Amino acid sequence: MKPPLEVSPYVVKDEGGKRVLIIDCRDAPYNPSFADDRNARFQVLKALTEAEADLIVLAEVYERVYDKNQTKMLAEIAGLYAKFETEGIWSYSHLGDPKLEQEKDFGERHNMIVRITHDEILFDPVLAYLLLLKETEREKARLQQLPKEQQATVYFKTLLDIKAAFEDTSFIQSARAVLSKLEKVPDTNQLYRAFFEAQVKPSFIGARLVFGTEEKLELLDEYAVKDANVQIFKHPNKTEKLYFISLPEYSLTPEKYFLVSKTKEVVASYSPGRASLSNIAKSRRYFERVYQSTMKDIARKEKIELSNEDIIGLSQVVARYSVGYGVLEVLLSDRRITDIYIDAPIGDKLIYLIHSEWGQCQTNIIFTQDEADSFVSKIRAMSGRPFDEAHPVLDFDLPDLETRVAAISAPLSPDGTAFAFRLHKTTPWTLAQFIDVKYISPLAAGLLTFFIDSQATMLVTGSRGSGKTSLMSALMLEILQNSRIICEEDTLELPIEYMKGIGFNVQRLKTRSPIGTSENDNEVAPENALRTALRLGDSALVIGEVRSKEAKVLYEAMRVGAAGNIVMGTIHGDSAYSVWDRVVNDLEVPNTSFKATDVVVVARPIRFKGSIERHRRVVQVTEVKKHWKEDPEEEGGLLDLMSYNAKKDELQFIEDNLKESDLFTRTSNTTGLSLEELWKGIRMGAESKSYLVALKNEFKMPELLEAENTVIANNKLVLIKEEQLEEFGSVDYEEALGKWKNWVRTYLVKRVQGRAK
Fold first, then answer.
1. Is the peptide bond preceding residue 442 cis, with omega within 30 degrees of 0?
2. Residues 127-180: pLDDT tens digits?
3. What are phi and psi of 436, to 5 degrees?
4. Cis preceding linkage at 702, omega within 30
5. DSSP-assigned beta bridge partners for residue 643
6. Angle at CA 63, nearest 5°, toward 59 and 69?
7. Do residues 252 and 260 touch, judged by C-beta distance below 8 A?
8. Torsions phi, psi for 88 (to 5 deg)
9. 3-class DSSP state of 357
10. In terms of DSSP bridges, do strands 540-543 and 484-489 run parallel, antiparallel, or are they unpaired?
11. 36-73: per-residue pLDDT in tens?
12. Which of the four pLDDT bands, split at 50, 70 and 90, describes residue 494?
């Protein structure tokens, strides 16, 4: 027997319920690749005789990861080795019949069986199998030359038993299928490369990127996010799309791998504390400069030539996996993504996400528990909140990435830590953009703008993912910029900083989250914050989400007019009636107070004709009338002004209901405008937004519909109307709209074009 090769150290870690065998190859004298080095094969198969595993990792500067199916094939070979050891397949009784054969031949047979089943099988199981086939054929030919009465078949049967055991393994079965198609036996390494191509990644990265697929994929989209490449595929047998991301750090040269790993090792002591984590976007630039300096020193000592561009790029990679969020950071930087889900047990499944254009997608990323633990440590440090068995929920906003994260763990999540990320749009949606994507009709946009101008109280409702928060953002942009806005939120989703940047006067109030906080949390309860808001002066009031106790305070304010201006909020529901039911029966607001609501706007995801694709639409605009007592639906208290027709994909105006409207009559009385004049104003608002959409398509200029430009356009239309009122005492809506259109085409379009250049 061959002397045993020194076995490399290994550990078995549990990741997402999977046993991962990690072999330390950092100081190994062999190439850490199962396909390319027989000594690496020995290390893997020998370890598998001692430990059970679902995945195998050969860890050096690179990590070569072998998946579940590959590991299963290798475990069968390791089991075969153990079987032969236990049975003593090379023992005297398996070598021949001493009554018919000379025992001097038994020694050669013993050596051959030992070579096949012990010496060679762990280094090169294919070669061991080929040697077995050759020996079997040789013994068969020898027996055929002897008279039947002299044929001793003990050794031949031993060879056949060994052959059957080999061929019972899935790897040898697959290898036989390939070998049968070849004219000559290839170098065995070629066979291993066909079956054991590893997923290669740097050792400092936890997440694995999976690319292999046997199906033909259709490329739907491709774009860049930071220094990564994203491809969206359609799979022939999957209902969801595939989101494949490719990162530069997964394909660096060996020298660059070494530099990045060494730099990360050297600067490990520079881990940021809570103070720097609280402003990670700024502190990151500092750490990148530290990493660049360190990398230059290492490159100089190791005589590795690098350009300045290389050093900058590699320092960003180090930052991503030290002060940043790793692979997750790239996903969070893709603003076409709206949601990301990492379910428990982590490491067991691929990450899923919701794409704004392609819906639910399966990524090629497998997150690890180590990365999850590191991420949890970061958000605990930034939030200052507990996250343990006593507090298994942590809800927090990542301000540097405009993202809200909800983390849960045991005992709430019995399978371990899990995350849900909601990515906020960096620029708010506008009504013109909603018209462009058919989320809302032009007339509905004009009608909602009219309600805001009339200082109506409005609730936007819908299920999660229906776009109600985005619609609220768009409606806030319709508030005149000479108004003050107080905005109360428990999770920071509304684009307040952006609105301030384009000239709005907004004061944000951050309240206690309804989940993941304790009674002694230092944040203010929503109902107390709302009482404070009502003391902050005459302001429009926006509630990010009406959830619980603050509803009573809100309706008290609305009822007595203490808010003094338009009041808007979002609430979960699927119809105007469900909003009433929630507010009155669940949140215990009296019926008389609920009547302070003027309008309910309902949004909903629509699946046309049963399609798997979801399209967000506003499906209902309902006025809440005032002359009912117990149930608004039974007593005609809910008046639909607009209703969605799925067959036509159109939000239709119900003109016959207009004569029953209390809101229009009240607005006419308070403004001195006739109903005809009110509708002229509504249609002017609708046509102005449609005109912006038309110009966007004409000039292929999506920037025209962004908030910074639509707000300027809204202001100009208001000023043109104001000029006519001051000069003539009334508004000529047709003339005002014509003058505005001319201004948009001659000034605003050129302004946007100039900025694009």
1. no
2. 999 999 999 999 898 888 888 877 778 888 999 999 999 999 999 998 888 877
3. -65, -35
4. no
5. 620, 652
6. 100
7. yes
8. 55, 55
9. coil
10. parallel
11. 889 999 999 999 999 999 999 988 877 888 888 999 99
12. confident
For residue 98, say if its preceding peptide bond is cis, omega within 30 degrees of 0: no
> Of 40, 74, 37, which is closest to residue 55 (Cα–Cα)?
74
Least confident of 119-123, 345-349, 440-444, 637-641: 345-349
SS (H, E, C) 169-198: CHHHHHHHHHHCCCCCCCCHHHHHHHHCCC
Give the residue from 94, 140, 96, 101 showing the smallest Cα distance to 117. 94
CA distances from 366 to 217, 289, 352, 739 (A): 20, 30, 10, 57
Q: How many CB atoms lie within 10 A of CB 357?
A: 11
Task: Domain 249-423: state its class.
Answer: alpha beta
Dist. CA 228–CA 337, nearest whole Å: 15
Give the pLDDT of residue 213.
57
Structure tokens at 221: 């989209």
- What is the overall mean pLDDT for the chain? 86
Q: Show Cβ contacts of residue 303 under 8 Å, excluding neighbours closer than 6 positions.
A: none
Q: What residue ranges in 280-330 does DSSP mark as E strands?
A: none
151: exposed, middle or buried (Cβ count in 10 Å: 0-12, 13-18, 19+): middle
Question: Would you say the C-alpha torsion 284, 289, 293, 298 has a positive or negative sign?
Answer: positive
Number of other residues whose CB lies within 10 A of the CB of residue 268: 9
Q: Are 167 and 176 in contact (CB under 8 A)?
A: yes
CATH architecture of the domain with residue range 431-672: 3-Layer(aba) Sandwich (3.40)
Residue among 586, 572, 625, 311 at smallest CA distance from 465: 572
Specify whether the CB–CB gap between 174 and 74 falls below 8 A. Answer: no
Residue 520: alpha-carbon gap to chain centroid: 33
Kindly report the number of other CB atoms within 10 A of residue 18's CB atom.
Answer: 16
Give the pLDDT band of residue 278 (cuts 50, 70, 90). Answer: very low
Q: Which residues contact 741 (CB under 8 A, 6 or more apart)?
A: 688, 691
d(CA 568, CA 553): 14
Partnered with residue 639 across adjacent β-strands are 623
pTM of the full predicted structure? 0.71
> Amino acid identity of 275?
A
Residue 335 CA to residue 220 CA, distance in Å, equals 18
Residues of the chain with CATH 3.30.450.380: 249-423
Q: Is 729 helix (H, G, I), strand (E, B) or coil?
A: coil
Distance, in Å, from the CA atom of 502 to the CA atom of 551, rounded to the nearest integer, reads: 31
Q: From the DSSP assignment, how many helices (H) and strands (E) are in the chain?
A: 26, 25
Question: Looking at the chain, which residues constitute the CATH 3.40.50.300 domain(s)?
Answer: 431-672
- Helical segments of 384-455, H only: 431-436, 442-453
